[in-house]
Amino acid sequence: MKLSDFRVLSFDCYGTLIDWESGIWGALQPLIQANDVKISREAALAAYGVIEPAQQHATPDLFYRELLVLVHAKMAAAWEIASTPALDQAFGQSIPLWPAFPDSAEALAYLKQHYKLVILSNVDRQSFAGSNSKLGVDFDAICTAEDVGTYKPDARNFQYLVRAVEQLGLTKRDILHTAQSLFHDHVPAEAAGIARCWISRATKGLGSGATKPVETMPKLDFQFPSLAAMVDAHKTEMAG
User: Fold this and answer.
1) Beta strand segments in the chain, E
2) 80 and 144 part of one domain
3) What is the pLDDT of residue 77?
4) How many Å apart are CA 45 and CA 20, to the nearest integer?
5) Which of 13, 63, 95, 105 could covalently link to 121 via disulfide, CB atoms 3.0 to 4.6 Å apart?
6) How far apart are CA 205 and CA 180, in angstroms?
7) Domain of 30: which CATH number?
């Protein structure tokens, strides 16, 4: 199997293209500072990795920016510190401020020359529009939780992806799903029979940071530590 065997790259966005851990940690600072507490980045992201997927399961119909309002309030409650509606709302509105990884825009510009590019994200369209401005590329299709009505790892999100790719005149066999999260992306993509490329971005063990760990490592077709490394591998293939 080679990277050049595929015609579509479907991307998770947050954690893969956008540095959501830095974004989340930065957006939590007003709450932490207002309460003058010491909470480590590692502990904060681990709490997010538990509370966020539970909230997605409980309220799959909420837009992600609305869901994060509840996540923020529950994180404060878990830490036994005081939040406010204004702080909760500000956290939900912070998504467009989360930074892109340094290699994302350049890598996407290169990959666009060789593939159709598709987003499969748990975000809402309004929030993604703010992030997309940092990525500098026009995606051929954008599939969000707002469109699907459920959040990954629900199988319906990957069914929706396949239908979106079919509307581009291609099939499931043409897709290489490219993502960081084992929990949100690679486990359900494997179940859906979609090829998988893990952008591990310095993850630790089976899941890390703001992503819920998985019990069993899914099978992976490709693995790279960054999008830049994936691009280098593609260039090597093309040169060969």
Assistant:
1) 8-11, 116-121, 141-144, 175-179, 195-199, 222-224
2) no
3) 96
4) 10
5) 13
6) 13
7) 1.10.150.750
Q: Are 29 and 47 within one domain?
A: yes
Percent of the chain with pLDDT over 70: 97
* Residue 25 structural domain: 20-97
Kindly give, in sequence order, each residue whose CB lies less than 8 Å from that of residue 61, ignoring residues fewer than 6 positions away: 149
In which element (H, E) is residue 229 found?
helix 227-239
Q: For the chain, how many helices (H) and strands (E)?
A: 10, 6
- Please report the pLDDT score of residue 132 as a whole number: 94
Torsion angle, CA of 4/166/197/151, rounded to 10 degrees? 170
122 and 185 part of one domain: yes
Q: Which two tokens stand for residue 60?
A: 């799959």
The two beta strands, 222-224 and 195-199, are parallel
Q: Which of 12, 19, 174, 221 is catalytic?
A: 12
Between CA 227 and CA 117, with CA 151 as vertex, the angle to 5 degrees is 35
Residue 232 annotated among the catalytic residues of the structure: no
Residue 102 has what pLDDT?
95
Q: Nearest to residue 68, comparing CAs of 89, 83, 84?
A: 89
Q: In Å, what is the CA distance from 164 to each residue of 11, 107, 142, 153, 175?
A: 13, 23, 9, 17, 11
Query: What DSSP state is assigned to residue 220?
Result: -
For residue 100 the two structure tokens come to 């892109």
Are 134 and 100 in contact, with CB atoms under 8 Å apart? Answer: yes
33 and 124 fall within a common domain: no
pTM of the model: 0.90
pLDDT of residue 73 exceeding 80, the answer is yes
| 126 and 208 both lie in a single domain | yes
CA distance 124 to 69: 14
